[in-house]
């Protein structure tokens, strides 16, 4: 019995956001912090991968290595997923697991990405998978392999296939971008001269809601990520902003000023059936659903300065959640329902993480200009925008603040990160 | 030149490939623009004035104010109160709109860069609504005014000190 789960818990300072970048990528991920106990694993090259546009084993290796959970060791791997491991030699090399696979072209032009994982300690086949993929989806197929290895060996779901949406700003140009979680394959989704703010993923990852100022005022638009088709869901009089999907994807919370001031409203995903949700004489905005869909957290300054409140969707009074500090905004809920992240203004702006069970909160950053925290779908990591060395960056961190990694965009202001869901 | 178009071709091709489906991802599609009603006027001619008569309709707005008005109102930090020194601007615009009931203006609220985007959007909205409210008190019709906000997204001045911040905390009045 080997301590897979203990290895993961003892992660401590190590970091689970992968990736190195080829020279032309705009996005560089730096990893700080070293791993604690790591699982030694041999990763063979995938048969025929040299004939394909992407090296599957290189992507998997980068994912596993940079997760901080694995240590890649040298050793003999089977030639492909149908081979047999040389357990004696592997054990002599100190490996606990070995992976082999293949990436062969099928008659229809797709590439069949196959792998198998063996437990070297037990001398047992742990299973594998085949995934025929379009060439354009090869990186995704490799990330799926990483996810499965990670899950088989740690018992936890991997986030290697997830994506992050964010906004960059250059003089006179705003771009809504989507990156794979390894910082590769960055694609622009929308380019405009007018600002874009507040991107928000639909729960199934097929759509992004966001605020556009294209018509010289704030409007909420929902965009199909793959096809680029858009629909306007909130363009009422005044400003329309802060979109956020309910966990079942059927409801959208938005901030509208159509009745004066700024308040939270709920509407169907289509934009129909608009009804007012918050009721105060102050500003109510930045609504986020709880993971069980039963409550909405939001920012309100009804008590003076902005604080975070929670209100039941089915009806009932709002209850204040943040009591420390005079200015608390930008709530984000971890998908497991345990944590609330937000920004607190003291001498600077800092990401705070609150344990919703106890109410205890701690600052997790050592920077002073933090914005927009967002949880990864496995609830283990947070991404946020901040300034480091005078430049705008995206930073990832474990939820206790350890294992920070910097995502750097060369020269551009980068902001509003939001971590996409599982399921790609 | 060939190098550049080659790169462009590669970029376009990779966009198409990356989309992973038959049609390429549209990078930038204009959002629907609200359709504005076209104003029509009818004119009548009096009989027996001859075939050469041309009827005249004057649709121009009659301005008493100068052609260029001051249109920016500045605010104190964390405040949406319109200070006395800016009342003349508010009054001048209000007079303009009262003289021409078909004229419309938008009050655009802004904040300095400090704080979150969405909360600042709401603060800018409060500033714009404060100006609009003053103009309505002066007699301007509700349908002639709209309050919107850019929050901190469109600073007038780049800079990270109070002199820049002070110039960004503002409401701009523009014709619609």
Fold and architecture overview:
The complex is a heterodimer of chains A (424) and B (176). By secondary structure, chain A is mostly beta strands. Chain A folds into two domains: 4-154, Rossmann fold (3-Layer(aba) Sandwich), CATH 3.40.50; 163-419, 6 Propeller (Neuraminidase), CATH 2.120.10.30. Helix content of chain A is 9%, strand content 44%. Chain A is built from four helices and 30 strands. Chain A has helices at 4-9, 56-66, 87-92, 138-154, and strands at 27-31, 39-47, 70-72, 97-105, 111-119, 124-133, 163-170, 173-180, 187-192, 196-201, 207-212, 219-224, 230-234, 240-245, 251-256, 263-268, 275-276, 284-289, 295-300, 307-312, 319-320, 328-333, 339-345, 349-355, 361-363, 371-375, 381-388, 391-398, 405-409, 413-419. A five-stranded antiparallel beta sheet of chain A has the order 1-29-28-27-26, with no helix packed on it. A five-stranded mixed beta sheet of chain A has the order 3-2-4-5-6, with helices on one face. In chain A, 52% of the residues are buried. Chain B has a domain at 72-175: OmpA-like domain (60s Ribosomal Protein L30, Chain: A), CATH 3.30.1330.60. In chain B, 34% of the residues lie in helices and 12% in strands. Chain B has helices at residues 2-19, 87-99, 117-137, 162-168; strands at residues 72-74, 105-110, 145-151, 170-175. Residues 1-47, 49-53 and 56-67 of chain B have low confidence and may be disordered. Classes of the chains: A mainly beta (424), B alpha+beta (176). At the A-B interface, strand 9 of A face helix 1, helix 3 and strand 3 of B.
């Amino acid at each position: 019995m080997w301590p897979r789960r203990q290895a993961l818990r003892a992660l401590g300072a190590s970091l689970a956001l992968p990736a190195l970048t080829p020279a032309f990528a705009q996005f560089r991920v730096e990893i700080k912090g070293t791993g604690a106990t790591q699982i030694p694993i041999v990763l063979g090259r995938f048969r025929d991968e040299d004939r394909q546009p992407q090296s599957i084993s290189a992507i998997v290796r980068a994912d596993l290595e940079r997760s901080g959970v694995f240590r890649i060791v040298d050793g003999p791997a089977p030639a492909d997923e149908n081979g047999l491991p040389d357990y004696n030699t592997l054990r002599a090399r100190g490996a606990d697991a070995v992976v082999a696979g293949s990436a062969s072209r099928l008659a229809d032009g797709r590439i069949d990405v196959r792998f198998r994982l063996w437990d070297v300690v037990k001398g047992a086949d742990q299973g594998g998978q085949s995934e025929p993929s379009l060439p354009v989806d090869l990186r995704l197929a490799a990330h799926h392999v990483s996810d499965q290895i990670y899950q088989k060996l740690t018992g936890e779901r991997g986030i290697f296939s997830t994506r992050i949406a964010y906004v960059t700003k250059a003089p006179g140009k705003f771009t809504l971008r989507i990156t794979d979680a390894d910082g590769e394959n960055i694609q622009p989704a929308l380019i405009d001269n007018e600002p874009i703010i507040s991107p928000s993923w639909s729960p199934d990852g097929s759509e992004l809601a966001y605020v556009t100022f294209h018509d010289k005022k704030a409007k909420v638009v929902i965009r199909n990520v793959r096809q680029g088709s858009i629909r306007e869901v909130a363009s009422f009089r005044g400003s329309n902003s802060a979109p956020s999907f309910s966990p079942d994807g059927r409801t959208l919370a938005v901030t509208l000023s159509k009745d004066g001031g700024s308040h939270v409203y709920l509407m169907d995903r289509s934009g129909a059936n608009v009804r007012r949700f918050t009721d105060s004489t102050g500003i109510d905005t930045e609504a986020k659903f709880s993971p069980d869909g039963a409550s909405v957290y939001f920012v309100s300054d009804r008590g003076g300065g902005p604080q975070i409140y929670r209100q039941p969707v089915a009806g009932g009074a709002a209850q204040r959640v943040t009591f420390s500090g005079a200015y608390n905004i930008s709530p984000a809920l971890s998908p497991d329902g345990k944590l609330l992240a937000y920004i607190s203004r003291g001498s600077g702006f800092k990401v705070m993480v609150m344990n919703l069970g106890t109410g205890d909160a701690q600052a997790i950053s050592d920077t002073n200009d933090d914005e927009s925290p967002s949880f990864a779908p496995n609830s283990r990591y947070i991404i946020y925008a901040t300034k480091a060395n005078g430049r705008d960056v995206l930073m990832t961190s474990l939820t206790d603040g350890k294992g920070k990694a910097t995502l750097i965009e060369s020269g551009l202001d980068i902001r509003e990160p939001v971590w996409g869901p599982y399921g790609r | 030149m060939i190098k550049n178009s080659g790169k462009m071709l590669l970029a376009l091709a990779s966009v198409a490939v990356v989309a992973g489906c038959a049609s390429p991802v549209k990078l930038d599609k204009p959002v629907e623009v609200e359709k504005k009603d076209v104003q029509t006027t009818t004119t009548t001619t009096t009989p027996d004035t001859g075939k050469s008569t041309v009827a005249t309709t004057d649709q121009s707005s009659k301005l008493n104010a100068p052609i260029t008005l001051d249109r920016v109102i500045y605010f104190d930090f964390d405040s949406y109160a319109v200070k006395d020194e800016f009342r003349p601007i508010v009054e001048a615009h209000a007079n303009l709109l009262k003289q021409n009931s078909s004229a419309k203006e938008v009050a655009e609220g802004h904040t300095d860069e400090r704080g979150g985007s969405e909360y600042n959007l709401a603060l800018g909205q409060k500033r714009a609504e404060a100006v609009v409210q003053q103009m309505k008190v002066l007699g301007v019709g509700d349908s002639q005014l709209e309050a919107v906000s850019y929050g901190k997204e469109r600073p007038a001045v780049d800079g990270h000190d109070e002199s820049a911040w002070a110039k960004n905390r503002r409401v701009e009045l523009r014709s619609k």
